[in-house]
C-alpha cells in the first residue's frame, strides 16, 4: 500500500542514519513526496501564497475527502510563474485553503511548511540531494 507523504517523512525522521533516511525516501517515492521535497528545498520554486498558516479547518484525518497523493497536481496554481499567476489572488488563496482542508492534517502541515520554505526537521537538504540527485537545481 502506498504511504501518505507525512508517513514517509515521519519514518525518515525516525531513522538514525542518513543512509537509512535515503533508503526510506527512495523506497516510498511518490510524485507528491518529491513535490514536497522540491517545493521545500529548491530555491527556484517561489510560492505565490501568503506566508504563515492560512485560516483553515483541518480535516479529521481518518475521513479525508482526498489525499496529497492526488492533489499535489494543484501545486501549479500556487507557484509563481505557473498557471496560478492567471488567477485572482482571492481565488488562488481559496483554492489553497480548500486543498489544505481536503488532505490529512499532517500532510497539510507539510504543505504549509513547504510554502514557507521551512526545512523539514530530520530530513535535511543533503539527504534529499542524495536520495534524488536530479530533483533539486544545484546552486
Keywords:
48% helix; 139 residues; 7 helices; mainly alpha
Give me the secondary-structure topology.
Layout: H1 5-14, H2 18-27, H3 31-41, H4 68-71, H5 89-102, H6 105-115, H7 125-131
Helix pairs in contact: 1-2, 2-7, 3-6
**Portion in beta strands:** under 5%
Quick one: how many beta strands? Answer: 0
Mean pLDDT: 92
Major sheet: none
Low-confidence stretches: none
Tally of structural domains:
1
**Helical/strand content category:** mainly alpha
Question: What does this entry look like structurally?
Answer:
There is one protein chain. The protein has helices at residues 5-14, 18-27, 31-41, 68-71, 89-102, 105-115, 125-131. It is an all-alpha fold and 139 residues long. It has one domain. α3 runs parallel beside α6. The model has no long low-confidence stretch (mean pLDDT 92).
Amino acid at each position: 500500500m502506498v504511504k501518505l507523504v507525512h508517513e514517509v517523512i515521519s519514518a525518515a525522521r525516525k531513522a538514525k542514519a542518513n543512509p537509512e533516511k535515503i533508503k526510506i525516501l527512495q523506497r516510498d517515492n511518490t510524485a507528491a513526496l518529491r513535490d514536497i521535497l522540491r517545493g521545500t528545498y529548491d530555491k527556484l520554486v517561489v510560492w505565490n501564497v501568503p506566508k504563515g498558516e492560512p485560516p483553515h479547518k483541518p480535516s479529521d484525518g481518518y475521513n479525508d475527502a482526498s489525499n496529497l497523493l492526488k492533489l499535489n497536481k494543484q501545486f501549479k496554481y500556487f507557484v509563481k510563474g505557473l498557471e496560478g499567476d492567471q488567477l485572482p489572488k482571492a481565488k488562488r488563496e481559496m483554492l489553497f485553503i480548500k486543498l489544505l482542508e481536503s488532505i490529512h492534517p499532517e500532510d497539510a502541515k507539510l504543505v504549509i511548511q513547504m510554502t514557507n520554505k521551512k526545512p523539514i526537521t530530520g530530513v535535511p537538504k543533503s539527504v534529499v540531494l542524495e536520495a534524488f540527485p536530479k530533483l533539486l537545481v544545484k546552486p
